[in-house]
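User: I'm new to structure prediction. If I give you an amino acid sequence, what do you actually give back? Let's try with this one:
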Amino acid sequence: MARLISTSFVVLLLAATAAAFALSEGARSEPSPIYRPRASGVFSPDCRCTRNAGTVSFRLRTADRVTLWLERDGERVATVVSGRRYPSGPVAITVDGITSSGTVLGDGAYGPVVHLEREHRTILLPTRLVVDSKAPAIRVPTVPRAIISPDGDHRHDTFSVPYSVSEPARPILLVDDRRVAVAAPAGRLVWNGRIGGRAVRRGLYVLKASAEDRAGNRAPEHVFAIVQVRYVALGRDRVLARPGGRFAVRVSTDSPTVRWTLHGRGGVGRRGTLRLRAPRRPGVYHLYVFANGHAAKAAVVVA
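Assistant: Good question. You get back a string of structure tokens that encode the predicted 3D arrangement of the chain. For your 303 residues, that looks like this:
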């Protein structure tokens, strides 16, 4: 009799265990009411840019009333949506970074929490929103004066300086307050003498540096260089000479040779000092000097 009772007890215990396991497996296989959760990542509530707000998105299996808040270190810091009804399907909620008391969220990572009224469930999403309101700092050496000649002959075509940033950020180069592309190896700012894809005219240009991080925060712009763009330049734009006399004019270019014309005559000379003979008749003549497709002009006054 005792053996029969013992056997019956074991059978009942096994049956109860199997039933509990079946219930557990059923609960475990029940799909979550929320799936495909995502967060936009890093944003800055203070920046005047497109990254001044974050986004929390997910999909609802069935329509429900949703409350969404952010928490940090287990504490609720900002209610984003309260009891708003959403249909089944995709849900996207904008997070502006304002706390429940009306202040801006401090820098750091926040966990989105969703409460479903119909399901009576509260779910901490595995994604995180990161608030970053601190602008990066960029360091560039000061260059009082530099000269480039962006004529494509691979001699002094570009201006280049090293830079460093205080955090991962994209460098920004501005020339006369116009943003230009930074086509450079890592750690260097390079300007190729072009703005908007077109070569600039000769003259002086002011270069400024800035940087932008992933949250859209921008470092203050600061001037770090004055660059002179020069293709071919003459030491003076007015030359006095005697009829038929010789005169000299300084030619500044990175081309080893130049071509010149004066009152129907012409020739080729070396850069540096160009020595020519003036026309025999008094008058005002124009001297043109060419190098790599660019020209400079000076008036030759014969008296």
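You can read the tokens as a compact description of the fold. Here is one thing that stands out. Residues 232-302 form a domain with the Immunoglobulin-like fold (CATH 2.60.40.10).
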